[in-house]
Amino acid sequence: MDLKKEIREVQDYPKEGISFKDITTLFKNKDAMRFVTTSIYENFKAMGITKVMGLEARGFVFGGAVAERLEAGFVPVRKKGKLPCAKLEETYELEYGLDSVEIHADALNENDIVLIHDDLLATGGTAMAALKLAQQCGVKHIFFSFICDLEFIDTPNKQQIKEYNPHVLVKYN
Fold it and tell me: What confidence tens digit (pLDDT) does each residue in 26-82 have?
């Protein structure tokens, strides 16, 4: 399936010069949804994944579905201030400042095998923050999955993520 046909590109959003990749259009197409979840499942089914970390918010949709298929738990990686109990926090840089993500402190342990999933790999800041959260919990076996990779963006964070050989379905050069 050519997923690029299912992903809407919005020019000059959220600011001029940006071509936003809107994967919410995938959600409308049951065949595209099935293709994405099956592709991720097939890639990771033999890895012994015990937890899928889904990054807020679009990473929740496929992350949760993939976790169910893998018979794994799901760990939401939320924006700061959204979780009610003891939590771990990681701050990362945006092009215009700083932001933070959190997980519950008891969400992962050193024996977990973790798949970190998000819809888009751009600068790698959010994915790197999720990686650091998993590492704070002692997790040693970590994999990555993204629907899209904006390959034309190159950052130190992204280079570190690439060392994990992430699974990517759509690449934009």
Answer: 999 999 999 999 999 999 999 999 999 999 999 999 999 999 999 999 999 999 999
Tell me the backbone φ, ψ of residue 80, rounded to 5 degrees. -55, 135
What's the pTM value of the predicted model, to 2 decimals? 0.96
Maximum Cα–Cα distance for the chain, whole Å?
A: 45
Strands in 31-140 per DSSP E: 51-55, 73-79, 87-94, 97-104, 113-121
Sorted by where each begins, the domain ranges of the chain are 49-172
State in words which class domain 49-172 has. Answer: alpha beta
Catalytic (active site) residue 58: yes
pLDDT in tens, 133-162: 999 999 999 999 999 999 999 999 999 999
Q: How many residues does the chain have?
A: 173
Q: Which of 71, 95, 110, 163 is catalytic?
A: 95
CB atoms within 10 A of CB 171: 13
